[in-house]
Design brief:
The chain folds into two domains: about 140 residues, Rossmann fold; about 200 residues, Dihydrodipicolinate Reductase, domain 2 (2-Layer Sandwich). It is globular. It has a nine-stranded mixed beta sheet. Strands 3-2-1-4-5-6 form a six-stranded parallel beta sheet, sandwiched between helices. The chain has 13 helices and 17 strands. The N and C termini lie far apart (about 40 Å). The protein is of the alpha/beta class. Helix 1 runs parallel beside helix 2, helix 6 runs parallel beside helix 7 and helix 9 packs antiparallel against helix 10.
Length: about 425
């Protein structure tokens, strides 16, 4: 199998997760990529990831602190996976395109809509592939949810609810997720919700929202989570407390182009009981999503009180079939649930993203989540921010075209856009 040589740019916790995805892809026997280099401004981060790569992949990639030097040293390098902090995505991606590289970029595509549009312009000029690493929709349960909706299992979709509350006053993974000028948790995590909602019921058209910062001081979280292992190396750099500047609460009403109405609430400052649920209602029933990377089954409820879940739900989507690589990684072509740890599921989905990225480079195909799709997810988040700032409904088209940008103006100034 032809393998394209690639590099990981950004060797922190997300870079480590990507490396584990590559390990999963290598182990599948279907790898069409070869990791030949790692790059980070911090040499210690790059060298540490290279050491891990040697252990996991069997060969140590070359270590760099500069992309241009990397391309000069490895002239046949074809692509990069960008896993730097969100605020630098546009700088790194645009430089990669100028260097003639294909780009797989972590979500969110950029820190602001202007940053996102700069990336899209650079990609169009270069003619290279751009894929956004949006992993939730790749999950087998997400694929089944979409297949059931498309098959009419709940009739015509009419309503969508995506509501969650958790977080308290703890630092969520790392301090930068509470920094308005480096991403913020509502953008960094909310872009997943934004992509998933539009994956299930189609493009969003308009948002009316309120956002706020409820917990202005955040404290180091001593409890371990599903993601703690990936970031342990940097735990000593987390201070006992930080001053938060990024919003931690979003409550909104959505209108989708197809007529579906939605209610989207993400609260990352809720004390006490954590809560989360996504449900799509249709003219003939409702479909509850169990979440990504946990394998939980979907639940369909009908007006007569009938409930369908587990293997029985597959009969309502007779054409549902996972692609060959996903089926191999998760253990079946038609899955109603699966058994995996969070870490296992996370790396399997990343393996799929790398395989698709390389396939697009080799064939010229368009990635499922290309730059325009990645921008659409960002636009839903930014339409909410703009709505809260302007105190009016905001159309996604307004923010995508930068017809409005009051919320992001000082962020753009801070990052030089």
């Amino acid at each position: 199998m032809t393998r394209i040589p690639i590099a990981i740019v950004g060797c922190g916790g997300m870079g480590g997760r990507h490396l584990r995805g590559l390990h999963e892809l290598y182990a599948s026997g279907q790898s069409n990529v070869e990791l030949v280099a790692v790059c980070d401004l911090r040499y210690d981060n790059a060298a540490s990831l290279a050491d891990d790569a040697e252990r996991l992949l069997g060969a140590r990639p070359q270590v760099f602190q500069d992309m241009a030097a990397m391309v000069r040293a490895i002239p046949d390098l074809q692509g990069v996976a960008i896993t730097t902090d969100t605020a630098s995505h546009h700088t790194v991606a645009c430089a990669a395109f100028e260097l003639g590289l294909h780009v797989l970029c972590e979500k969110p595509l950029g820190l602001t809509m202007r940053a996102c549009n700069r990336i899209l312009a650079a990609q169009a000029k270069s003619g290279k592939a751009l894929s956004v690493a949006e992993n939730y929709r790749r999950d087998p349960m997400s694929r089944l949810m979409r297949a059931l909706i498309d098959a009419g299992a709940i009739g015509t979709p009419t309503l969508l609810f995506d509501i969650s509350a958790s977080g308290g006053d703890r630092i969520i993974i790392l301090p930068w997720r509470h920094d308005r000028y480096r991403g913020g948790i509502v953008l960094d995590a909310g872009v997943h919700n934004a992509d998933m909602m539009q994956y299930f019921v189609g493009p969003a058209a308009e948002v009316y929202a309120r956002t706020c910062l409820l917990e202005s001081v955040r404290y180091r979280n001593e409890e371990r989570t599903n993601l703690t292992d990936f970031y342990d190396r940097w735990a000593v750099e987390i201070p006992p407390s930080i001053e938060a500047t990024a919003e931690d609460t979003l409550i909104s009403v959505l209108t989708f182009e197809g007529g579906v109405l939605g209610q989207w609430t993400n609260v990352y400052a809720a004390h006490g009981e954590g809560f989360g649920r996504m449900v799509v209602y249709g003219s003939e029933g409702s479909l509850r999503f169990g979440g990504a990377r946990n394998g939980r089954p979907l639940t369909l409820c009908r007006d007569d009180g009938g409930v369908v879940s587990g293997e029985d739900i597959l009969s309502l989507a007779p054409d549902f079939c996972l692609d060959p690589l996903t089926a191999q990684l998760f253990g079946g072509e038609r899955l109603a649930s699966y058994e995996c740890t969070f870490q296992e599921a996370d790396r399997k989905l990343l393996a799929w993203e790398y395989h698709e990225f390389a396939a697009c480079v080799l064939t010229g195909a368009t990635p499922e989540v290309d730059g325009h799709m990645g921008r659409k997810a960002m636009a839903l988040c930014y339409a909410a921010f703009e709505s809260a700032t302007l105190n009016r409904p905001v159309a996604l088209q307004e923010v995508e075209s930068e017809a409005t940008g009051a919320y992001e103006a000082d962020i753009n100034a801070r990052i030089g856009l």
